[in-house]
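Folding Task

Wanted — backbone structure
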Amino acid sequence: MTTTLRSLGFSESAARRLAQAGTPIDIDAGVALTTKGERGDEAFLILEGEAVVELDDAKVHVGPGAVVGETATLDPQLRRNATVTTATRTLVLVYDVQTFRSLAASDLHSVLVPERHATAA
């Protein structure tokens, strides 16, 4: 996992921490990672493959290096604001609520909680 994360541009230290903290899961195409309106119990870092983020007014394709599900995972008062479905076989690292909040509160915040500038796909 560390090698894959390094190839996505993460530093050696960040790659090691992210790989150790996450659970790798290989997911078939067509599987919902998040469903709009549900609680955020985990966040996902895409390592391989592609997913589609279905917003109210747009569909955005995301791929390796993208983090999805982070907003509702960080704030227990929020619900999922989008449905994210795998478009291809996708390898992700999954982070539970406590782990993700801890990582996002560290120096990894900028890579785990990116600013969103959605564009229609």
Observations:
- The CA atoms of residues 24 and 93 lie 4 Å apart.
- The chain is about 25% helix and 30% strand.
- Confidence is low (pLDDT under 50) at residues 117-121.
- Strands lie at 23-27, 32-34, 42-48, 51-54, 59-62, 67-68, 83-86, 90-96.
